[in-house]
Structures are given as C-alpha cells and as structure tokens.
C-alpha cells in the first residue's frame, strides 16, 4: 500500500489516514480528496472496515483480564521436556481406562476435584474422572475384576440401612430381569451393591455406571467381574444430584474410557 | 525495526516500540532449541494461552492441561516456526486453537455417546441431546471472538510506551486526544500518530492470528 495523496482514481489512501477514518476523525484530519477516493475504492473501504473492527476489539479488550496458569503448569512442561529423549514422551500421563494401573494414576489427581466430574472432563490427560471415582477405582484396583464382595451384606452388622434400590433389566423390547442394585449405608460408608444375574453379552469387561436422570452426565463407578456381585463406594450426594440410573455396560478392550453404548442392564434407584 | 519503520513512514514517530525485535529474538532462539527462550515465551504468553483455553473450555483443569500441551507442542514443533516479528504469537495461538478444538471435539463425541446411551432407557427423556452438536458449534463461534479480544488485550499490554499508554488512555479511559497530550506531555500530532499507527499495528497482529 502506497502512502501518497492522490485523486480518487489514484493510489490508495495512506494507512494512517485509513486509521483516522476508522476512528471517525473529521475533515480537519482527513481531507476531502482522500475521503472521495476511499468512498470510490473497494480496497480502501474494506481496509477502513477492518480497522473499525479492530477498534471495536481494542475497546472491548479493556474489559479483559488474564489468568496466569499456576506454577504447576510450567513445572509439568519442564518435566515433559526433561523426560524427552530421542523418542518424544507423551505430554502428560495418560491412563488406560481399564488398566490395573488405574488406582495409582488416580493418586495424581487433585483431591479438591469434585466427586462428580462432568463428562466433558473425563478425558483430560490427568484423569479427573478417575479421581471422581477414586474410591471406586481404588476398589477396582486389584484387577479388572472390580470389587468382589467379601462377605454377605446381611452379615455386615446391624447398621445396614437401605437408602434406595432398583431391579435391573435388559433394555430390549421384552426386558429380562438382570438382577438388582441397592444403595446401602453401613456405619459411615455408603455403597452401591450391584447383584447382577444372567447378564449375557459378549465375553469381556463389565463396567458399572451411574447416569444422571438429567440425561447429560454419567460417572463410571468401576468394573465388575462377569456374573459376580460388586460393591462400590457411593458418595451419597450422587443420589441427591440425580445420579439414579444404574447401568451395566459391556466394554470392549479398546482403550476407550467412555461408555461403549452397549448396556446389558439398567434400573433407576427409587427412594 | 526502527529503521524499517522510519523508512516506511519517513516521520518522527517510530512505528514500533522495539517489542517486536525482542519477540523476533525469542522466536529465533526457540527455533534453534534454546530452552531459556521457551521459558521466557512461557512467561510472556502463557497467560494469553491459558486465558483463551479457560474462556473456551470453562474449567481450570482443562485450561491447565491445554496450556501445558500447547507449550510442549511448541517446543516439539519449533522447527515449523518461521521467525518474523509477528509470527510467534500467531503461531502459539494457532497451536492453542488446535488443542481447544480437539478438546471440544472430544466433548461432542462424549455428549453424543451419553445421549445415545440414555436414549435406551425405557421411558426416559430421550429426545434432547444435552450439550449436543449445536451447543458445541456455538462454543466454537464464541471462542473465536474471545480469542480476538484476548489477543488484542495481550498485544496492548505488551506494547511499549508511550504508544501502549496512549492507546489505553484513548480507548479504555475515553480521554480526548487533547487530554492525552496534556497528560503525557507529547504534542497533539504525535498522540494522533501513535493512535493511528497503534490501531494499524493491532490490526496486523489480528490478521496473523486469525485462522
Ligand atoms: Zn484505495
């Protein structure tokens, strides 16, 4: 862009004059010759429009403030590079959803994270969703077998109180009974006890989920050994928050931590 | 920088504050594998990257993840940076956009999965797809405006004085040109020139940053 004054048909207006026009300055700043060139020139007109848009952003930018990341972020960047060899290391610890290492990885997460993690966070490199169900994961730790029930719940003392329960059924057109689930308070602990029966489905991993009745959130409680009952620590507020739909899915061994979409049984906790 | 600017405008107000030359050094250092340069780049631009991520994604945790990934990516792909005076912020913002859009894509897939899993509940409210595709599209649109605003805000902060101060007085504190001249002790013509050139400079930065 050249910076000469000229007749309307001549060279484009100088950048400074275009900026002055964009700022709405008067004839004492931008002469009539320049104005009529700009009015007749598509290029200059669009330049002025772009500068006006920038001006609007500059004004709006006054309200912006920046949030610096906490020091841990630079530490993580440094560590990521420090570990770098000729083979680039992954940027952050990633955790296989169903791996036996789940419990250790859960320790990496921030304990201040809420118990219920929005779905959108479940795939963060540091697996928040594992922290979300840290207790359950810890139970599931030993295995892919999840949480074998050690004793009979009826034997676990007089303090068992049932907070809610549901029958489980398959999801097809003629639902088959597939067992039951109970939320139980035992002393200071609240657990979801899942007693599946006749789950069918392909060989492989069974995962227990809680789906919110709002239909937009779910959490994984952990894995279930095929055909066996399991117990999962169950933060009581999950119930209040609407996590009432118990779902047992079949999970193929594909490393994808999200629900496979293949539900074997489901039921909604009453009470 | 100053001589190039002087040649272009042939006037007494230098076009830039020297900030870009400095940025050029940082970009060159990064490309050549100098970790000190990466640290300095992080110091200067991580608030921008982190804030863009925070505004686009809404959670501190994800914003921190994205920020971390952006700077690690920047280091790993430093050879793709062509050091020019404006390239570095645009390049970082480009990496940031990619990371954010990856993350939003994961959200959409996840939302669709929940929706389809929930849809199988007999008698459940299966019609709505909460946080579905259209909501994500709106997120992305909104994010574009946020990025522009934040880039401009960051550039304004980084702009050396007196130009940066003059722009802020004019556009954020609504002082007249005469008041700014009085406040800064600079001639009115100089104030006006800084405003016009500052605006043009910001517009160029913005153009670089836009995808
Ligand atoms: Zn023109």
Describe the overall structure.
The complex is a heterodimer of chains A (271) and B (211). Helices cover 26% and strands 23% of the residues of chain A. Chain A is α+β, with helices and mostly antiparallel strands and 271 residues long. Among the domains of chain A are: 47 residues, no CATH class; 129 residues, Immunoglobulin-like, CATH 2.60.40. Chain A has a four-stranded antiparallel beta sheet. The longest helix of chain B has 33 residues. Chain B has nine helices and no strands. Chain B has two domains: 135 residues, Orthogonal Bundle (Rna Polymerase Sigma Factor, Chain: A); 52 residues, Winged helix-like DNA-binding domain superfamily/Winged helix DNA-binding domain (Arc Repressor Mutant, subunit A, Orthogonal Bundle). Chain B is globular, with a radius of gyration of 22 Å. The two termini of chain B are 26 Å apart. Chains A and B meet through helix 1, helix 3, helix 4, strand 7 and strand 8 of A and helix 3, helix 4, helix 5, helix 6 and helix 7 of B. Zinc ion binds next to helix 3 of chain A. The site of zinc ion (ZN) has 6 residues of chain A, from helix 3.
């Amino acid at each position: 862009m050249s910076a000469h004054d000229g007749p309307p048909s001549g060279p484009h207006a100088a950048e400074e004059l275009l900026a002055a026009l964009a700022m709405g300055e008067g004839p004492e700043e931008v002469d009539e010759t320049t104005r009529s060139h700009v009015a007749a020139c598509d290029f200059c007109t669009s330049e002025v429009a772009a500068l006006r848009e920038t001006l609007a952003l500059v004004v709006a930018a006054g309200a912006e403030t920046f949030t610096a990341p906490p020091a841990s972020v630079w530490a993580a960047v440094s560590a990521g590079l420090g570990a770098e060899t000729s083979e680039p290391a992954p940027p952050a610890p990633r955790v296989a959803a169903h791996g036996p290492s789940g419990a250790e990885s859960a320790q990496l997460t921030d304990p201040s994270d809420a118990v219920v993690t929005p779905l959108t966070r479940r795939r963060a490199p540091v697996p928040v969703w594992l922290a979300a169900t840290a207790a359950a994961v810890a139970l599931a730790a030993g295995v892919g077998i999840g949480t074998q029930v050690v004793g009979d719940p009826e034997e676990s003392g007089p303090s068992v109180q049932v907070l809610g329960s549901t029958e489980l059924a398959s999801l097809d057109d003629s639902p088959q009974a597939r067992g039951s689930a109970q939320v139980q308070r035992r002393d200071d602990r609240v657990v979801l006890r899942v007693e599946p029966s006749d789950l069918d489905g392909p060989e492989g991993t069974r995962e227990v989920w809680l789906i919110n009745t709002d239909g937009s959130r779910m959490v994984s409680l952990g894995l279930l050994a095929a055909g066996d009952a399991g117990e999962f620590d169950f933060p009581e507020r999950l119930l209040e928050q609407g996590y009432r739909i118990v779902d047992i899915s079949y999970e193929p061994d594909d490393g994808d931590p999200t629900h496979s979409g293949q539900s074997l049984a489901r039921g909604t906790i009453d009470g | 920088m100053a001589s190039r600017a002087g040649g272009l405008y042939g006037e007494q107000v230098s076009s830039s504050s020297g900030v870009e030359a400095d940025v050029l050094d940082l970009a060159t250092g990064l490309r050549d594998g100098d970790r000190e340069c990466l640290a300095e780049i992080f110091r200067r631009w991580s608030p921008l990257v982190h804030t863009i991520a925070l505004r686009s994604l809404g959670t501190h945790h994800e914003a921190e993840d994205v920020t971390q990934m952006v700077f690690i990516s920047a280091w790993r792909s430093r050879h793709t940076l062509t050091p020019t005076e404006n390239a570095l912020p645009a390049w970082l913002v480009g990496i940031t956009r990619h990371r954010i859009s990856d993350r939003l894509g994961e959200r959409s897939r996840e939302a669709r999965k929940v929706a389809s899993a929930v849809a199988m509940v007999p008698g459940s409210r299966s019609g709505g797809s909460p946080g579905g595709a259209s909501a994500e599209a709106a997120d992305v649109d909104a994010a574009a405006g946020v990025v522009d605003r934040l880039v401009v805000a960051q550039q304004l902060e980084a702009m050396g004085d007196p130009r940066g101060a003059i722009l802020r007085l004019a556009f954020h504190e609504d002082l007249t040109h005469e008041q700014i001249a009085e406040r800064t002790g600079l001639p009115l013509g100089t104030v006006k020139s800084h405003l016009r050139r500052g605006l043009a400079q910001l517009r160029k930065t913005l153009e670089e940053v836009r995808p």
